[in-house]
Design a protein that fits this description.
This protein is an all-alpha fold. The chain is built from 19 helices and three strands.
Length: 406
């Protein structure tokens, strides 16, 4: 008689024809262990991903954005938790809790696309809670203790404690794994885009902005400007004397309240423009450049670049780095070309402002500038300057068109 060599270690990855179905209590307690082991890592990932949202929620617990943020954070918690569990299953065929209780997941028929099948299984497990846990009851009526997500992913949860009577398993569609993997990737990408789109609304405090706008907190001049563009546009118009200090002050206060550190520099520069206190102005200008390398001008934020350039009278350096990517850059470049007497570039810089005149207040700014320049041209025009007359006629046509659109 031949006896088994008991000194040879058992390879748990090779399951024989005899397997024992995992006990329900083992499956339940393995989930509890997973929760306590994996949750700290999941919360760390959540905080790293949505740091701004958590900080804002902590300091503004009653803000209307928090409802949407809680939903986004909850969904991402499930996704992160499922991803970590799927990694363990793909490598060791068991989560930490399952490994501790000697429970293992066996993928039937073949082991293709293990990670995607594992992720589908784990995310479907969490989805069951949406239906008050009713889908879990299917495990009670199935002799193999298969839940709906076990059948969905064509896998079995078995115990490695001992081998017992053979059990069978259901056959699924022949090539469903490839289809499901493709579907998971596609839906995952769409879902990720949806999550980030909605989270951007949380970060921009769109709900709070809407509530304040309904209470007429903001000035009507910027009514049609989007939330993320309001402060730069307000600064540009204020510098051109087309927007009051009070309006700009409200915009900067809202941006600082949003607690987005990337916007602090511009907001503090705006505060420096609206205050009458010289000490406060210096303090705001200092805050606009806090934690920035003043030795590397190009690495500074735009708010710090503008603040330091005017403070140190380095307008040429500022003019050189300005572009036409937004209204603040474009209008400031135009204004500086006047201040620095760059006569050859004035018309070109002013023409670039036209692409932003979808806003009524910017059209008004253009009209004021054109009227001002038209008066100065007529004052300085000589009888022989036919070229100046041609330019003046073109500007007159544009001026009449803008006035008609207002």
């Amino acid at each position: 008689m031949v006896y088994q060599d008991i000194s040879k270690p058992v390879d748990l990855n090779k399951i024989g024809t005899k397997k024992s179905v995992a006990h329900l209590m083992d499956r339940f307690f393995s989930f509890l262990i997973d929760y306590f082991v994996i949750s700290p890592f999941v919360f760390f990932l959540l905080y790293a991903t949505f740091n701004n949202g958590f900080n804002f929620w902590k300091s503004n617990p009653t803000a209307p954005e928090n409802d949407l943020f809680i939903i986004i954070a909850g969904v991402c918690y499930v996704l992160y938790f499922s991803l970590i569990q799927s990694l363990f299953i793909a490598v060791w065929r068991a989560t930490p809790g399952q490994f501790f209780l000697k429970v293992k997941i066996e993928f039937n028929e073949n082991e293709n696309l293990i990670f995607f099948r594992a992720f589908l299984r784990q995310s479907s497990f969490w989805f069951s809670f949406v239906f008050i846990g009713i889908p879990f009851l299917s495990v009670m009526t199935n002799k193999l203790r298969h839940t709906f997500y076990d059948r969905l992913c064509n896998c079995s949860v078995i115990s490695t404690k001992e081998e017992s009577a053979p059990v069978g398993f259901e056959n699924e569609f022949k090539y469903w794994q490839s289809f499901m993997a493709t579907l998971v990737v596609f839906v995952g990408l769409l879902f990720t885009a949806l999550i980030w789109k909605n989270y951007s609304k949380v970060v921009q405090r769109v709900s709070s902005f809407t509530a304040l706008q309904e209470k007429q907190f903001f000035c009507d001049e910027l009514k049609s400007v989007s939330v993320d563009e309001r402060l730069p546009v307000a600064i540009a118009l204020n510098l051109a004397n087309q927007l009051s200090d009070d309006c700009l002050d409200k915009e900067s206060d809202f941006v600082l309240w949003k607690q987005r550190q990337d916007d602090y520099s511009m907001a503090y520069y705006a505060k420096s423009l609206t205050t009458d206190d010289a000490d406060k102005e210096k303090s705001y200008l200092k805050q606009a450049c806090v934690k920035q390398d003043m030795g590397d001008f190009r690495s500074l934020t735009l708010g710090c670049k503008i603040a330091s350039s005017f403070a140190d009278e380095k307008l040429e350096d500022l003019y050189a780095i300005l572009t036409d990517k937004d209204f603040l850059n474009t209008s400031l470049k135009y204004e500086l070309s006047l201040v620095l007497d760059k006569t050859d570039e004035v018309e070109t810089n002013f023409a670039k402002i036209e692409k932003f005149n979808s806003l009524k207040i910017i059209k008004k700014y253009q009209v004021v500038e054109m009227l001002s320049r038209k008066g100065s041209v007529e004052k300085d025009r000589s009888p022989a300057s036919s070229e100046s007359e041609s330019v003046g006629d073109d500007n007159s046509e544009k001026l009449l068109k803008l006035i008609g659109e207002l």
